[in-house]
Design brief:
The protein is mainly α and 107 residues long. It contains 6 helices and no strands. Helix 3 packs antiparallel against helix 4 and helix 3 runs parallel beside helix 5. Pfam families: PPR_2.
């Protein structure tokens, strides 16, 4: 219903919905909301990345992280934490090392 109403333009509300779907493991629903959002921010991306990471879909988390970077969004401690978890779970040591280097640069 939210996708069809004016609420779809409320980024904060949609971010909460993304987080809820991720915590419930409803990643298809989260992705549908995400894809229909006219405006996305760092929280939007991080919410879905976290959902993927926590539910064993590490490859999707990494792909969405790379998309987030292409949108010129700068990761914060929450997005770094989620994507590093995805790298650890998937065994992607190369990306994990690159992320670790980025975290060190930001400190």
């Amino acid at each position: 219903h939210i996708l069809k109403s004016n609420c779809k333009h409320d980024t904060i509300l949609n971010n909460h919905i993304l987080s809820m779907y991720g915590k419930c493991g409803s990643l298809r629903d989260a992705r549908q909301v995400f894809d229909f959002m006219p405006q996305r921010n760092l929280v939007s991306y991080t919410s879905v990345i976290t959902g993927y990471s926590q539910n064993g879909q590490e490859a999707e988390a990494i792909l969405l992280y790379l998309e987030m970077l292409r949108e010129d969004l700068v990761p914060d401690q929450y997005s770094f934490g989620s994507i590093i978890k995805a790298c650890a779970s998937s065994g992607d040591v190369v990306l994990g090392k690159q992320l670790h280097a980025q975290v060190i640069k930001l400190e």
